[in-house]
Amino acid sequence: MTTDQSAEGYSFEDIQLIASNVLKQTRHKPSIGIICGSGLGGLADIVQDAETVPYSSIPEFPVTTVKGHEGKLVFGYLEGKPVVLMRGRFHYYEGYPMWKVAMPVRVMKAMGISTLIVTNAAGGLNENFKTGDLMILRDHIDLPGLTGECVLIGKNDDRFGPRFPAMVGTYDSELIELAKETAVNLGYSSILREGTYIMIGGPSFETVAESRLLRNWGADAVGMSTVPESVVAKHCGIRVFGISLITDMCSLSYDAANATTHEEVLAIGEKRAGDLQKLICAMIGNMNLNNN
Ligand SMILES: O=P(O)(O)O[C@@H]1C[C@H](O)[C@@H](CO)O1
Ligand SMILES: Nc1nc2[nH]cnc2c(=O)[nH]1
């Protein structure tokens, strides 16, 4: 590797090298990348003609340390479309610098993906939501970014994308419409929501006062991931679709205060991931890959 990894991240050449190393380990050439959130990796089990590349076999790839995140790339087909799934993502709270959290997105771009589906488990802030709902990301609030930890900080290489990328429209409106139509066809209208996801650094869950603050800022759901990946994807011209499984409702009043646990997040993930998987598969089936 040619760069100072702690400050800048991997160079453009480093990323191409990592991507070509991964592609040597599979017959597949993916067009769609999917990042699986906490407890949501089951989607990988239904990939057809699957080939697995463990993160440990990829030089310079980080390792996953969080329960509910296995560490492997799964290549193959969903609904006849070539995909690569990240079964296990990296979080800032694991101690990785922000650029490293999102580095796999650049690797997936170098492998040829043009569409990214980002999933996560999130806490509901919008009082109309309930546990088990699916929330399409219309927008996000990059709280770490607003406080000086934007994933794009450091020297910019224009081959990745522009120095000052626009973030309006990060979440592709055609994919949002496709998700809504697909959800109606699946009979999911009553669990489908749309809103703004806010990323906090974690790993501590929110206090009541913090949840109230995030809600007042206009966030509908809160989590500890997704935003750096979406920002890097938008920066390098990938169209993005984001979706949250609401695994718990954040307490907005002390009377109703109950403590969220990661075990609860994983349990709801296990129980409700099927709905998310069906929605994503049906969307992929209807996706036009020549559109971008
Ligand atoms: O990877 P995601 O964002 O789905 O994981 C969420 C946020 C924390 O990592 C964890 C909390 O339970 O779940
Ligand atoms: N910050 C945060 N992340 C989550 N991930 C899943 N649930 C939650 C939550 O309630 N808060």
Give the N-terminus to C-terminus distance in angstroms: 31 Å
Named at the architecture level, the CATH assignment is: 3-Layer(aba) Sandwich
The CATH superfamily label reads Nucleoside phosphorylase domain
Rounded mean pLDDT is 93
Rg over alpha carbons: 18 Å
Number of strands: 9
Overall, the morphology is globular
- Flag low-confidence runs: 2-6
Specify the helix fraction band: 25-40%
| DSSP summary: helix tally | 7
Percentage beta strand:
15-25%
The tally of domains stands at: 1
GO biological process, one term: purine ribonucleoside salvage
Function: The purine nucleoside phosphorylases catalyze the phosphorolytic breakdown of the N-glycosidic bond in the beta-(deoxy)ribonucleoside molecules, with the formation of the corresponding free purine bases and pentose-1-phosphate.
Organism: Patella caerulea (Rayed Mediterranean limpet)
Domain Nucleoside phosphorylase: 32-284
Brief summary of the model shown:
One of its GO terms (cellular component) is cytoplasm. By secondary structure, the protein is α/β, with parallel strands linked by helices.
